[in-house]
Design goal:
28% helix; FAD-bd_8; 5 helices; alpha/beta; oxidoreductase; three-stranded antiparallel sheet; 251 residues; flavoprotein; 7 strands
Amino acid sequence: MSKPKGFKYRSGQYIYVNCSDVSPFQWHPFSITSASGDEFLSIHIRTLGDWTSQLKCLFSKVCQPPSTSQSGLFTADLVQANNITRFPRLLIDGPYGAPAQDYRNYDVLLLVGLGIGATPLISILKDVLNNIKNHKSIEEGTSHNVNRSNTKRAYFYWVTREQGSLEWFSEVMNEVAEYDSEGIIELHNYCTSVYEEGDARSALITMLQSLHHAKNGIDIVSGTRVRTHFARPDWRSVFKHVAVNHINQRV
């Protein structure tokens, strides 16, 4: 959405959304997935129920259906010859505070998201990425914005059941892989519907995945540059890894 004039928010916060074409009285909360420095406002909505299904149906009438190579996301074609597209009108209320918004006070971030619940963390990732870009611009002399964040390192663990959901945030994943040359952000995707690595039942897909990633730099499971792990993370080793590498830092 276009950002309303004077609308300010922090990554990790959420807004209430109303679409009168679906229901003039219903307001539903969604985490903001765009970063505070972005020129637009974005949310990710999973269709689970009447209101979200009707909203998707409305937008599918004015948006292009996905091609066979894309996920189930519709793309809005704003420039259509002799045809002005009327998008459903959205009203927003917010932003509202959430615990994740204070992430800038910490030296190291350990972000853990489950399925669509990763949305506030995606906004934080984007903000950390924007700070990296901003820092590079300052070094090159093309920008003078001072970075006010304390964050020096970020770990993102995203655990999801379905392979298809790995495409929801593929754009962000690829952007991080492209711009984060110093490895400030460490991304880990986990698909729990496949047996863990080392299990004979997932040996073939693990082998194909390794060959494809080595040859093309793209993960066959997620379709991004970030390699996907199988089963659930070993949290004990994850916490130990972060603790050992960041002694005397606020995590």
